[in-house]
Automatic annotation (TrEMBL), chain A:
<feature type="transmembrane region" description="Helical">
    <location>
        <begin position="212"/>
        <end position="232"/>
    </location>
</feature>
<feature type="transmembrane region" description="Helical">
    <location>
        <begin position="336"/>
        <end position="356"/>
    </location>
</feature>
<feature type="transmembrane region" description="Helical">
    <location>
        <begin position="300"/>
        <end position="324"/>
    </location>
</feature>
<dbReference type="Pfam" id="PF02653">
    <property type="entry name" value="BPD_transp_2"/>
</dbReference>
<dbReference type="InterPro" id="IPR043428">
    <property type="entry name" value="LivM-like"/>
</dbReference>
<dbReference type="GO" id="GO:0009401">
    <property type="term" value="P:phosphoenolpyruvate-dependent sugar phosphotransferase system"/>
</dbReference>
<feature type="transmembrane region" description="Helical">
    <location>
        <begin position="259"/>
        <end position="280"/>
    </location>
</feature>
<dbReference type="InterPro" id="IPR001851">
    <property type="entry name" value="ABC_transp_permease"/>
</dbReference>
<keyword id="KW-0472">Membrane</keyword>
Automatic annotation (TrEMBL), chain B:
<dbReference type="InterPro" id="IPR017781">
    <property type="entry name" value="ABC_transptr_urea_ATP-bd_UrtD"/>
</dbReference>
<dbReference type="InterPro" id="IPR051120">
    <property type="entry name" value="ABC_AA/LPS_Transport"/>
</dbReference>
<dbReference type="InterPro" id="IPR003593">
    <property type="entry name" value="AAA+_ATPase"/>
</dbReference>
<keyword id="KW-0067">ATP-binding</keyword>
<keyword id="KW-0813">Transport</keyword>
<feature type="domain" description="ABC transporter">
    <location>
        <begin position="14"/>
        <end position="258"/>
    </location>
</feature>
<keyword id="KW-0547">Nucleotide-binding</keyword>
<dbReference type="InterPro" id="IPR027417">
    <property type="entry name" value="P-loop_NTPase"/>
</dbReference>
<protein>
    <submittedName>
        <fullName>Urea ABC transporter ATP-binding protein UrtD</fullName>
    </submittedName>
</protein>
C-alpha cells in the first residue's frame, strides 16, 4: 500500500528525512565553527524544540482535524511526559555543593533527607521513558472513559478538557500536597525541574547529546507522520473522519464510537507525552507554566494556522508560529500576544484551510486577476 | 397500484407491547402496541408530537422505555429484548435507521460511505487491517445500482443533491443487510420527481426487508402504503389500509381533518 497521496508528498518526505536526519546533524558535527556551512548547537536544540512542538501539533490534529474533537489538554499531556522524563534527569544531577546531597534542591529546602517512594522508580531511565508515554496514556484513558461514556462532545468536550488542564496545573504549581494527614512533596512547584546534568550517562548540554536528541525528535516526527498517513488509508481512518462528520450515523452503523474515540484520545496523549520527554532535555527544564490552559490554546493556533485536517499543516503551523514568536519576542516583546491573536482571527476568517490550503484558495483569485488584466485591455465601447 | 400484502401467516419480526415512555411527566408514548411482520412495508403517520420519533428512538435503543417490552425476533427464532441492548449493537442485530435529515459522511466518497456501512466486524483491529474483498466491492456496486448513484461512486457525498443524499443514506442501510429498516421522513425536502423515485425505491425493498416508514406527505403515503399505522398522543389510534385509515372519522378528526381544514 502506498502511504503517500502523490509523488510530491513522497519526494518531500524523503528530502525532509535526509536534510533533518543527516544533513543538519553533519553540518553541526563535522564542520568547523568558522565555516559558513556550520550549524551551531544552539540552532540544533532550537530546531529540536520546534520538532517536538510539531509532534505535539500533529497529535492535536489527529484529534481535532480528523476526529472532530477540539481537545484543550494536549499541552497538559506534553507537560506530563516532560515531567516524567524530567524527574529522571533531576535525579541524576549529582551531589550539589550547597547541601551535599544527591536530592533535588527543592527537596533539600524542605528538609527532606530521603527520596520519597513515588520518586524512586524515576531513577531508572527505562522506567522514566515508559512513564513519559504511559502516564499521559493512563490519565487520558481514565479521563476518556468518563467523558466519552457520558457522550460529552463538541464544545462541552473542549471545556472539560480545559478544566482538566487547569486542575492539574494548579496541582503542579504547589510544592506540597497535604493528603490523609500526610505531606507529599510534588514536582518543584513554581520552579519546576531544571539544572539537568546527565542523560543516559552522558552530559546533557554536550553538542553530541543535543545532536542525538535532535535526531531522535526528528525520527519520532517522521514515524508519527508515517503512522498518520497509514491510518488515514485504512478503514479506521475513514471511521475516524466519519465520527467527525456524523457521529450519530456511524454509531447507528454499528461502530462503538466511544471505543474508537477512547483509543484515538489515548494514543494522541501518548504521542504528546513522548514529544514532551524529548522536549525537556533540549530546553533544559520544565515547570508548571507549560501546563497553563494558554499553552494548549497555542497548539490550537498552530494547527489552525498550518492547516487543520492536513498531514503537513500542523508541522508547518507549529514551526512558523514558533519562528514568528521568537522573532517578535526579540523585536517587540509586548506585541507578541496581540500578533498571535491577530494570526488566529485572520486564520479563522480568511484561511479556513490554513497555510497549506492557501495555494488552492488563491488559485481562483489569481485567475480572476489575470482574466481582469486581459479584459481591461479591451476598450469599452 | 398493487402491492403484495404481507401475508397473515408470515412470522413477526418486531413486537412492541405495552410500552410507555414519559419525559418530565409528559407521556410521549402511552401503552403502545405494535407488531411488524417479516418483509412488511409499514407506514407510520400521525400529527406532530404523536410520538413518532420517540417510537423510533425506542426501537433503536436510543432511549429506554419506562414500561413494556420491545422484542426483535431473529431469523433463528431467538428473541432479543431491545430494551437491554446497547445502541451500537442494534445495527449488528439487523436494524438500520435513516435519520430525518440526511446524515452521511460528507468528506467521504459515495463509495466509502457505503463501504463503512457494509455489514461485518466493527472492531478497532479489524478496521485497521481490513482489506476490501471482491464480494464487498460487488455488494457496494449492487447497492449503488439500487439507489441510482453508480455514476457518483467517487464523488464526495457532501457534493450530492439533497435527494441523492437521502438515497445514499437509504443505501447505507441496505449495505448493512438489515432485517428492519426504519426510515424517518425520506421524502422531506424532495422535488416531486425525487419523491416518486424514493417511493419506487422503498416499494422495491418490500419483501426483502421489513420497513417502517414515517412520513408526513400524504401523496407519498398513498404511493407506498399498503398498511398504515396512525399514532396519536403516543398511542396507536388506527391501523389498516390507506383507504380504511383515510376514511376513518377519528383519524380525520386528529390528523387528516386538520390538514384538510387548512386548505
Amino acid at each position: 500500500m502506498n502511504l503517500f497521496d502523490n509523488k510530491l508528498e513522497a519526494r518531500g518526505f524523503i528530502v525532509a528525512a535526509i536534510v533533518l536526519l543527516f544533513a543538519l546533524p553533519m553540518l553541526n558535527g563535522l564542520t568547523s565553527p568558522d565555516s559558513f556551512l556550520h550549524v551551531s548547537s544552539f540552532q540544533i536544540s532550537l530546531w529540536g524544540k520546534y520538532v517536538t512542538y510539531a509532534i505535539l501539533a500533529m497529535s492535536l490534529n489527529v484529534l481535532w482535524g480528523y476526529t472532530g474533537m477540539l481537545c484543550l489538554c494536549q499541552s497538559l499531556f506534553f507537560a506530563l511526559g516532560a515531567y516524567a522524563f524530567g524527574m529522571y534527569l533531576m535525579l541524576h544531577v549529582g551531589v550539589d555543593t550547597v547541601y551535599n546531597t544527591a536530592l533535588p534542591d527543592f527537596m533539600d529546602f524542605q528538609g527532606y533527607t530521603e527520596l520519597p517512594w513515588y520518586w524512586k522508580p524515576f531513577e531508572s531511565a527505562p522506567f522514566a521513558v515508559l512513564a513519559a508515554v504511559g502516564i499521559p496514556g493512563i490519565v487520558s484513558f481514565i479521563f476518556g472513559v468518563l467523558v466519552f461514556r457520558s457522550r460529552i462532545k463538541g464544545v462541552y468536550f473542549s471545556i472539560i478538557t480545559q478544566a482538566l488542564t487547569y486542575a492539574l496545573m494548579l496541582l503542579f504549581f504547589k510544592n506540597n500536597l497535604e493528603l490523609f494527614g500526610q505531606s507529599f512533596i510534588l514536582f518543584g512547584g513554581n520552579n519546576g525541574l531544571n539544572g539537568f546534568k546527565e542523560i543516559f550517562g552522558a552530559s546533557v548540554d554536550s553538542a553530541s547529546t543535543q545532536r542525538w536528541l535532535f535526531i531522535a525528535s526528528v525520527l519520532l516526527m517522521l514515524t508519527v507522520y508515517l503512522a498518520i498517513a497509514w491510518v488515514l488509508k485504512t478503514k479506521f481512518g475513514k471511521v475516524q473522519q466519519a465520527i467527525r462528520d456524523s457521529e450519530n450515523r456511524i454509531r447507528f452503523s454499528g461502530y462503538s464510537t466511544t471505543t474508537y474515540k477512547l483509543l484515538i484520545f489515548t494514543v494522541c496523549a501518548m504521542i504528546a507525552g513522548a514529544a514532551g520527554a524529548l522536549y525537556v532535555p533540549q530546553v533544559g527544564g520544565i515547570n508548571a507554566n507549560e501546563m497553563t490552559p494558554a499553552k494548549s490554546l497555542d497548539v490550537v493556533v498552530w494547527v489552525a494556522f498550518g492547516g487543520r485536517g492536513t498531514k503537513f499543516g500542523p508541522i508547518l503551523g507549529a514551526v512558523v508560529v514558533s519562528l514568528l514568536k521568537s522573532f517578535f519576542l526579540r523585536a517587540a516583546p509586548d506585541s507578541w500576544l496581540i500578533i498571535l491573536g491577530a494570526i488566529f482571527i485572520f486564520t479563522v476568517l480568511f484561511m479556513p484551510n490554513g497555510l497549506v490550503g492557501l495555494p488552492q484558495q488563491l488559485k481562483p483569485l489569481w485567475k480572476r486577476i489575470r482574466s481582469k488584466s486581459t479584459t481591461s485591455t479591451v476598450p469599452v465601447s | 397500484m398493487a402491492h403484495i400484502p404481507a401475508e397473515k401467516h408470515t412470522p413477526l419480526v418486531l413486537s412492541v407491547e405495552g410500552v410507555t415512555k414519559s419525559f418530565d411527566g409528559f407521556k410521549a408514548i402511552n401503552d403502545l402496541n405494535f407488531y411488524l411482520r417479516d418483509g412488511e412495508l409499514r407506514t407510520v403517520i400521525g400529527p406532530n408530537g404523536a410520538g413518532k420519533s420517540t417510537f423510533m428512538d425506542l426501537i433503536t435503543a436510543r432511549t429506554k422505555p419506562d414500561e413494556g417490552k420491545i422484542n426483535f425476533h431473529k431469523d433463528n427464532g431467538e428473541d432479543v429484548d431491545l430494551t437491554r441492548v446497547r445502541e451500537h449493537h442494534v445495527s449488528q442485530l439487523g436494524i438500520g435507521r435513516k435519520f430525518q435529515n440526511p446524515t452521511i459522511y460528507r468528506s467521504h466518497t459515495v463509495y466509502d460511505n457505503l463501504k463503512l456501512s457494509l455489514s461485518g466486524k466493527r472492531g478497532l483491529l479489524h478496521s485497521l487491517f481490513y482489506k476490501e474483498s471482491a464480494s464487498d466491492r460487488e455488494k457496494i456496486y449492487d447497492v449503488m445500482e439500487t439507489i441510482r448513484l453508480k455514476d457518483h461512486a467517487h464523488d464526495l457525498a457532501g457534493a450530492l443533491s439533497h435527494g441523492q443524499k437521502q438515497w445514499l443514506e437509504i443505501g447505507m442501510l441496505l449495505a448493512q443487510d438489515p432485517r428492519i429498516m426504519l426510515v424517518d421522513e425520506p421524502a422531506a425536502g424532495m422535488s416531486d420527481e425525487e419523491t416518486e423515485r424514493t417511493g419506487e425505491l422503498l416499494l422495491s425493498l418490500e419483501g426483502k426487508h421489513s420497513l417502517i416508514v414515517i412520513e408526513h406527505d400524504m401523496e407519498f403515503v398513498r404511493q407506498i402504503a399498503s398498511r398504515v399505522t396512525v399514532l396519536h398522543q403516543g398511542h396507536v389510534l388506527k391501523e389498516g389500509s390507506f383507504d380504511f385509515v383515510k376514511s376513518d372519522p377519528q383519524v380525520i378528526e386528529v390528523y387528516l381533518g386538520r390538514q384538510t381544514r387548512k386548505h
